[in-house]
Amino acid sequence: MSRLFVRTLRDEPADADIDSHRLLLRAGYIRRVASGIYSWLPLGQRVLAKVSAIVRQEMDAAGAQEVTLPIAQPLDLWARSGRDQTYGPLMFRFQDRKEAGFCLAPTAEEVVTSLVAGEYSSYRDLPVNLYQVNWKYRDELRPRFGLLRAREFLMKDAYSFHVDVADLQRTYHDMYLAYQRVFDRCHLTYRAVEGEAGEIGGDVNHEFMALAAVGEDDFVWCRNCDYAANLEVARRAASSAPGPPDEPTDAPAREVVATPGMGAIAEVAGFLEVGPDTLLKAIAFEASGSSSEGSGDEAPVLGLALVPGDREVNPVALAGALAPRTVRLLDDDDFRARPGLTKGYLGPGAPGVAIVVADPLVAAPRAWVVGANQVDHHARHAVLGRDFDVDQWADLVAVVAGDPCPRCGAELSIDRGIEVGQVFQLGTKYAEALDARYTDEAGEQHPMVMGCYGIGISRVVTAVVEEHHDDQGIAWPASLAPYDVHLVALAGRGDTAATVLAAAEELYDELTAAGVAVLYDDRDASPGVKFADADLLGMPVRLTLGAKGLARGVVERRVRATGADDELALNAVLAALLGA
Questions:
Q1: Residues sharing a CB contact under 8 Å with residue 56, sequence separation 6 or more, in sequence order
Q2: CATH 3.30.930.10 domain extents, the chain
Q3: How confident is the model at residue 155 (pLDDT cuts 50, 70, 90)?
Q4: What secondary structure letter does DSSP report for 149?
Q5: Where does CATH 3.40.50.800 sit in the chain?
Q6: What's the pLDDT score for residue 250?
Q7: What angle, 0 to 180 degrees and rounded to 10, lies between the N-to-C axes of helices 457-467 and 42-61?
Q8: Kind of pairing, strands 541-546 and 485-490?
Q9: Percent of residues, the chain, with pLDDT higher than 90
Q10: Which of 177, 271, 303, 456 could form a disulfide with 355 if both were Cys (CB 3.0 to 4.6 A apart)?
């Protein structure tokens, strides 16, 4: 340690919001260079290498072949797929001296598809699965949580090419199992959940979520079966699309009431002394493009999504209900541009609304409190079929804990997680855009069918620290620790100091020669400083050799994860560590 490039920090870093960020900075694994950009110091580099090695082993075992693709990529490739627009400001862009456009790769579907298209053209060439471990770049608007939402990050990305969907599904299954082995070996508690494709696309995909309270993603899971999904795409047990219910026999006529300054559900419910579930929430949106029945592009239309006041609209579900049209929720600028729409007081019958989509929960036989479409007013006793109508029924509400599972009907639970990996069945999106085709046995050409598979290697480091730490520091699993053993020599100042140091050096040499990676604290520092640093750095085993122990022929052992202490005979340390 007297030669190791590391400086531990005693004070808490001011800009660290989560435990992993705080501890990796304090322990000298990383250092901030700019917002969302970090240097990896020797200890951190060793952890990255450990994760990368596990990933490479499992990718190789699954039949993938390693390549290295460029970080600087031509923008014209991205224009061909249309993702230069999809990524928008997330992409770092630049020009070379000839003013040709380039980007720093946020991912590599375009480049690898172009590569395979140039090399392979026959069904006999397929399938092929290529992967790389390389740096990726995304210009996050608000980088935060250290490595969790960074602008530069290390990623394993793999891409497979096939003759048909059935062949893709076989590789997808193999990669799914490989991911499970990777995260098992990294000692993460995780769940594989149905995911949202995002900018990458694809109809079928799964996210691997490491359980963590600081995770940026909510996911639902069933305690009774294997259903699990990102909250964005999670479903309740399907509800049939209902018709208008019978009018409640005791429902008075619709009545407009003053609700001054009350644009929120809770405020109105409290004022009227009713439950939030008796209010009807109306979310305004704009739908663009052509409907499934239409031909060509249609003019954008204004719509309302209706859900009970105690539930939220799931934008992904709304978009799915109106596909293939594009759906965009109205923001403050939209409301300012449409003075006829009264934000906070919207309800059925709002001016200019062309389509009303409602969740089946809205068909409950009750009278609703709705926005009256005038500032500071709501309406009581609004009844479906009498006072307002619905054009389309769809499951719109965001899933909450306790909702019924869509597979077995049991109650769903919600947890938070860090997305550490995702696998996609992409289909032919990129092959068609970049002309990646193969010729079949009959001489006919077809687009290659693709899959892609990503693991955030630097994110795995964050997730592992979030799960494996305590108040004193990191507690690395043995598979990822920079060193197997942290050897602490307590030489003191007396006559035995040289003897202790010599014995520690001999033990260090013995363990190192046997292949045990040892971090040896040979510094002239107090026992308190050495022990505090050992706990902070987090090697799985700490061996302490002092004058008293040496006199008895023993070395003290502490297991970092459990805090368990015992003594080992100096001549049996290696055997004990190797489990012999």
A1: 66, 133
A2: 41-236+414-465
A3: very high
A4: B
A5: 483-578
A6: 74
A7: 110
A8: parallel
A9: 85
A10: 303
- Which pLDDT score is estimated for 350? 94
Would you place residue 242 in the very low, low, confident or very high pLDDT band (cuts 50, 70, 90)?
low
**Residue 101 phi, psi (nearest 5):** -85, 135
* Long-range interactions of 495-504: CB distance < 8 A, separation 24+: 496/547, 496/550, 497/547, 499/547, 499/550, 500/545, 500/546, 500/547, 500/550, 503/545, 503/550, 503/570, 504/545
Give the residues across from 13 on adjacent strands.
Answer: none
The tokens describing 187, both together, are 């000692």
Encode pLDDT of 467-520 as tens digits: 999 999 999 999 999 999 999 999 887 778 999 999 999 999 999 999 999 999
- pLDDT at residue 298, as a whole number: 75
pLDDT of residue 430: 95
Give the containing element (helix H, strand E) for 427: strand 412-427
pLDDT of 293 over the 70 cut: no
Question: Is CATH 3.90.1150.10 the classification given to domain 41-236+414-465?
Answer: no
Q: Is the separation of the CB atoms in 403 and 411 below 8 Å?
A: yes
Query: Which residues have CB under 8 Å from 53's CB, separation 6+?
Result: none
Give how far the C-alpha of residue 537 lies from the chain's centroid of Cα atoms, to the nearest Å. Answer: 26
- 237 within 8 A of 410, measured Cβ to Cβ: no
CATH classification for the domain delimited by 483-578, as one of 1.10.357.10, 3.40.50.800, 3.40.640.10, 3.30.70.360: 3.40.50.800
Give the torsion through C-alpha atoms of 461, 462, 467, 472, to 10 deg: 100
Q: What does the alpha-carbon distance between residue 412 and residue 546 come to, in Å, rounded to a whole number?
A: 55
Residue 190: its pLDDT value, please? Answer: 95
Residue in 77, 73, 70, 112 with CA at minimum distance from that of residue 92: 73
Cα 263 to Cα 281, 342, 376: the distances in Å are 11, 9, 7
Q: What is the location of CATH 3.90.960.10 in the chain? A: 255-393
The residue written with tokens 């190789």 in the block is: 60
Taking the model in full, what pTM does it have? 0.87
Indicate the CATH number for domain 255-393.
Answer: 3.90.960.10
CB 420 within 8 A of CB 208: yes
**Residue 373 φ/ψ region, left for φ over 0, alpha for ψ in the -120 to 50 degree band, beta for the rest:** left
For residue 249, count other CB atoms closer than 10 A to its CB.
6
Residues 396-419 pLDDT 10s:
999 999 999 999 999 999 999 999
Q: What is the pLDDT of residues 243-266, one digit of tens each?
A: 555 556 578 999 999 999 998 999
Question: b/e map of 428-442 (b: 16 or more CB within 10 Å)?
Answer: ebbbebbebbbeeee
φ and ψ at residue 360, rounded to 5 degrees: -55, -20
Q: What is the pLDDT of residues 173-222, one digit of tens each?
A: 999 999 999 999 999 999 999 887 655 555 678 999 999 988 888 999 99
Residues forming beta bridges with residue 487, ordered by sequence position: 520, 543
Q: What does the alpha-carbon distance between residue 449 and residue 426 come to, in Å, rounded to a whole number? A: 7
Tokens 């500071």, located at residue: 376
